[in-house]
Amino acid sequence: MVPLSWYIGLSAVLFGIGVIGFLVRRNVLIMLMSIELMLNSVNVSLIAFSHYLQDLRGQVLVFFIITVAAAEAAIGLAILVSLVRNKSAALHTDEITEMKG
Amino acid sequence: MTPKMFFIYFAVAMTFMSVMVITRRNPVHSALWMIGLFFHIAAMYLFLNAEFLAAVQIILYAGAIMVLFLFVIMMLNIREEVVAERFIGEWPIGVALGIAIMSMIIYAISKLEPGPSGEYTIEAVQKITHTKAIGSILYTQYIFPFEIASLVLLIAVVGAIVLAKKR
């Protein structure tokens, strides 16, 4: 039997990698993928808790998180597409300066 | 012993794949590593007796969300992206913050005390099948959050169309 703390540790490591990816990359696409990575790591920990505490509420929560992740990816990518359409090569975060007065 | 070996394989592979996702130069490669990562996560869900969510993970994440990402990557021109600098100038600060958050969570694990167990033991779930067990909770206790989730999806659909529309 694998202890519960191993799963939570793995989830913490994945979450940390997602945070690092979100903070250090310049590419908006990969920042969005890092957000998905963070959401998935939380899902792993929720399912591990729900398995070890023998309660299905964690899995219901994962269901909602997957829904929100799909919505978030759709909106984020739509914003990205409209950014690139308005200005060529705005794929980098430090080139997005349209809001600056 | 064998479950632990499997877990160690999955942990190492998932960590490696997520590092590959955030370090690849080409977003297509990142997306492909991400798909591999999602398959591993789905296998881990099977490991934790969550068969329905493993199927949802593959259908929704690997099948829908990553395909959406790949569509957008192929719509955009990434040719100049491949030669540009990958990381921001202040990347050590980002790495330090990520490691700080990671170590904080890992420190919190050592203080973890599991709460009281629920009624859905593995035998009870297997008796009424996993999908049915999840459905019976989702459509009774969580019916209002379920409706709100449908509203979130509706707003996402409308918002994506309005944002990406040519004007």
Can you describe this structure?
The complex is a heterodimer of chains A (101) and B (167). Chain A has 101 residues and is an all-alpha fold. Chain A has one domain (4-95): Helix Hairpins, CATH 1.10.287.3510. Chain A has helices at residues 4-24, 28-52, 57-86. In chain A, helix 1 packs antiparallel against helix 2 (28-52) and helix 2 (28-52) packs antiparallel against helix 3. The relative contact order of chain A is 0.13. Chain B contains eight helices and no strands. Chain B is mainly alpha-helical and 167 residues long. Chain B has helices at 2-23, 27-47, 51-75, 79-83, 91-110, 122-128, 130-138, 143-164. Chain B folds into two domains: 1-83, Four Helix Bundle (Hemerythrin (Met), subunit A), CATH 1.20.120.1200; 119-167, no CATH class.
The main sheet of chain A comes to: none
| Cα end-to-end separation of chain A | 59 Å
Number of domains of chain A: 1
Note the total helix count of chain B. Answer: 8
Q: Uncertain regions of chain B: pLDDT < 50 for 5+ in a row?
A: none
**Cα-atom Rg of chain A, whole angstroms?**
17 Å
Q: Any idea how many domains of chain B?
A: 2
Class based on secondary structure composition and strand pairing of chain A = mainly alpha
- Count of individual beta strands of chain A: 0
The H-level CATH homologous superfamily of the largest domain in chain B, spelled out, is: NADH-ubiquinone/plastoquinone oxidoreductase chain 6, subunit NuoJ
Which fold name is given in CATH as the topology of chain A?
Answer: Helix Hairpins
Task: Quickly name the level 1 CATH class of chain A.
Answer: Mainly Alpha
CATH architecture of chain A: Orthogonal Bundle
Number of DSSP E strands of chain B: 0
* Largest sheet features of chain B: none
What's the number of helices of chain A? 3
Mean pLDDT across the residues of chain B is 88
CATH architecture descriptor of the largest domain in chain B: Up-down Bundle
Say what oligomer this is: heterodimer
